[in-house]
Amino acid sequence: MWMLPLLQKLNSKKMSEMGFKLSAKDIYDINNSSLKDAVMHFGGGCTAELISKEGLVLTNHHCGYGTIQRLSTVDHDYLQNGYWAKNRDEELPAKGLSVTFLDRFEDVTKAVTDAMVSEADSKAKDKAMRTISDQLTAKAVASNKYLRARVVSFFGDNQFYMVVTKTYNDIRFVGAPPSSIGKFGADTDNWVWPRHTGDFSMFRIYVDKDNNPAEYAKDNVPYQPKKYLTISLKGINQNDPAMIIGYPGRTNRFMTSYEVKETSEITNAATILVRGVRQNILMADMEADPKIRLQYSSKYAGSSNFWKKAIGMNETFAKLKVMERRAAEEKTFTEWVSADPAMVEKYGKALSDVKAAIDGRAKLQMISRYYMEALSSIELTSAAMRFAPRPEGSERGGPGGGRGGYFGGTPADFYKDYSVSTDKKVAKALISLFREKVPATDLPAFYKTIDTEYNGNVSAYVDAMFNQSAFVSEEKLNAALAGDKAVLLKDPAYLAAKDISTAMGKYMRDMEQFRTQYAKGQKQYIAGMLEMKAGQAIYPDANSTMRLTYGKVLNYSPKDGVIYDFVTTMDGVMQKEDPKNWEFVVPDKLKELYNAKDFGQYAMKDGRMPVAFLTNNDITGGNSGSPVMNKKGELIGTAFDGNWESMSSDIIFEPSLQRCINVDIRYTLFIMDKFGGAGWLLNEMRIAK
Questions:
Q1: Do 259 and 354 contact (CB within 8 A), yes or no?
Q2: Tens digit of each residue's pLDDT (9 = 90 or more) over 320-370
Q3: Complete DSSP assignment for 278-314
Q4: What are the angstrom distances between the C-alpha of 524 and each of 120, 179, 612, 633, 674?
Q5: pLDDT at 125
Q6: With the CA atoms of 246, 250, 253 and 257 taken in that order, what torsion angle do they form, in degrees rounded to the nearest 10?
Q7: H/E element, 352
Q8: Where are the beta strands (DSSP E) in 155-211?
């Protein structure tokens, strides 16, 4: 996950040796157009790329999933049935969606460290950091109202870069296949190869008449980009060079053995248990009611993706002996430090500080995780904290950060995708589960109400809360807001939300001492590792800034006697078809195209239709939708997943097993053109045949 400004220094020679025909400036140049100008941060959590001179954007289906769901209704279900605009007028405004382009990186390490070096305690250092960041970012954007800047930490606060960006807010939905293609295989195939998912969607950026970012307006025009990608239909072969530019969200490649244990036994364990319970409830209701399926499809998908990842991560931690390998690295580091008194002075307490912090916060971490995963996933209490009038002297906040929590918008936005009956079932299950897993002394105050007023009956308490609360519907909420708003502060859902928020705040404060100790130890450990490995090319952990990964198209062997090919085709789609299982339904039109072998210019040389392929590129969450490019920088696919055998990849890189799963661009265009009937979009693309 290499930083683009350092490609010339760290990577160019190796990339050239592997067959890439691009210079570092072809990829990243702040004075001229380069590949980085065709790649964007999509919606804050994914990556996308420009594929036409008219601002056409390609990303994953699962990246556009939330937007597509919000645009859908029971009568016009674009998730279920797909959608393709037949002209510009049919492109649908995607409310709340934005894309952000990188303008430049600037190394500001010296300015930041100089500002903080004389400050004695963490609070003073934080204040100094905020002050210098404000000064640097103000200078960077100057009078350009379209630019934004932020100072970002790298290598555990040992380096700092200023990232300057430009954001576009008028984004319109152009099209996507139905979920039977875009989500083919669903949970069963998630994180698994071989894969047969057409995981893509398309959008368009609109701007004002001067090609500048603008809020939605009917007379806005398509964006004219500095750079867009040429699309290659020439196909791929084993060992072909392949690279990806994108926005990986978070890795922990410097994680210690103590943190691996904590992640496995506390963080992942709670995630797996709680989300499994909640997801079973959601799925049952979604299968029973089309309206609830539409309301909860995006929520379910967002929850289940990391749930399955956590399961796979724990499995690979054990199989690949990640904890033991990290312990061996720590032993090497300790021996290196101990050999030099100067190193002992600088780094001698690094690992002991990390261990002490991890050990000290263990109980708090467990309790906090259950608060976030369980109680914060009750939508009624999240809505109560969000929409209740703010009490005198208080700040807006509360338990809205869980997987089912409410993240913003208007009451209309929230209640459009809210089922009272489903949320009530979730509340009963998670309040009961929370009581089983958390010590009685650490339960929020409303559990006393359950015991004293409802004889410990969680179901009765939840029924009463939902029956009496004004937050169960938009109509009841609006009626309450039209009257004495103070009544909402006595609403049972608000009182429960307040108890949850108060308790969570306490545990966050209690963990602060360990957070400070951990940050100090981690910074010293990473600094020491960098010094110990001086001269080696090393990349920082992912932090949602633009990175490049390069490698090649490559198969792999998951176990003895088995080799997975690097490509899948539509033959596999048909082999997996199961009309009785919604995860593996194949649309009739797709079957007709397959049976007629009507693949047009998108077929492989042997006549088969490609679907997905593998590379050994290094990606993680946030890279979804990233462009996969050949040695010339031409688009050959979009990254959308990793493989099961390397689920610990956020912690440790496993070259022989780690693979990136990509949608072949030929399948994308085939579905868009032959299946979706949107071939008109080809006219604005640049295609190398």
A1: yes
A2: 999 999 999 999 999 999 999 999 999 999 999 999 999 999 999 999 999
A3: HHHHHHHHHHH-HHHHHHHHHHHHHHHHHHHHHHHHH
A4: 16, 47, 42, 38, 56
A5: 86
A6: -160
A7: helix 350-360
A8: 159-168, 170-176, 201-207
pLDDT at position 117, please? 87
| Residue bearing tokens 């645009």 | 71
Give the other-Cβ count within 10 Å of 688's Cβ: 12
Dist CA 215 CA 612 (whole Å): 36
Alpha-carbon gap, residue 412 to 423, rounded angstroms: 17
Between vectors from CA 313 to CA 312 and to CA 316, what angle results, nearest 5°?
Answer: 85
Q: How many CA atoms lie within 13 A of 684 on its CB side?
A: 19
How remote is the C-alpha of 443 from its chain's centroid?
31
SS3 246: strand
* DSSP 3-state of 56: strand
Map tokens 């994953």 to a residue. Answer: 60
| Residue 62 is a catalytic residue | yes
Q: Which of 72, 74, 140, 62 is nearest to 108 (CA)?
A: 140
- Tell me: pLDDT of 406 over 50: no
Burial class (CB in 10 A: 0-12, 13-18, 19+), 73: exposed
Quick check: helix, strand or coil at residue 209? coil
What's the rounded Cα separation, in Å, for the pair 442 and 440? 5
76 tagged catalytic: no
Distance between CA atoms of 103 and 100, rounded to whole angstroms? 9
**What is the C-alpha radius of gyration for the chain, rounded to an integer number of angstroms?**
26
Cα–Cα distances in angstroms (integers) from residue 508 to residues 361, 366, 504, in the given order: 11, 12, 6
Torsion, Cα of 85, 90, 96, 102 (10° steps):
60
Reading the block at residue 546, the tokens are 């633009």
Does 199 qualify as catalytic in the annotation? yes
Contact 158, 135 (CB under 8 A): no
State phi, psi for 49 to the nearest 5 degrees: -140, 155
Q: What is the pLDDT of residue 136?
A: 96
Report which of 405, 399, 418, 406 is spatially closest to residue 466, judged by C-alpha positions.
418
Q: Which two tokens stand for residue 679?
A: 């071939």
Whole-angstrom distance, CA of residue 112 vs CA of residue 122: 14
Q: Which of the following is catalytic: 34, 303, 376, 624? A: 624
Q: Is the pLDDT of residue 409 over 80?
A: no
Count how many Cα atoms sit within 13 Å of the Cα of residue 643 in the half-sphere of its side chain: 29
What is the amino acid identity at position 484?
Answer: D
Distance separating alpha carbons of residues 194 and 191, to the nearest angstrom: 10
From residue 322, alpha-carbon distances to 111, 329, 352, 522 in Å are: 37, 11, 20, 18
| Catalytic residue selected from 41, 61, 62, 196 | 62
Rounded CA separation 643/637 (Å): 17
CA distance 66 to 59: 13
pLDDT of residue 478: 94
Using CA atoms, how far apart are residues 490 and 487, in angstroms rounded to an integer?
5
Q: Which of 199, 442, 641, 673 is catalytic?
A: 199
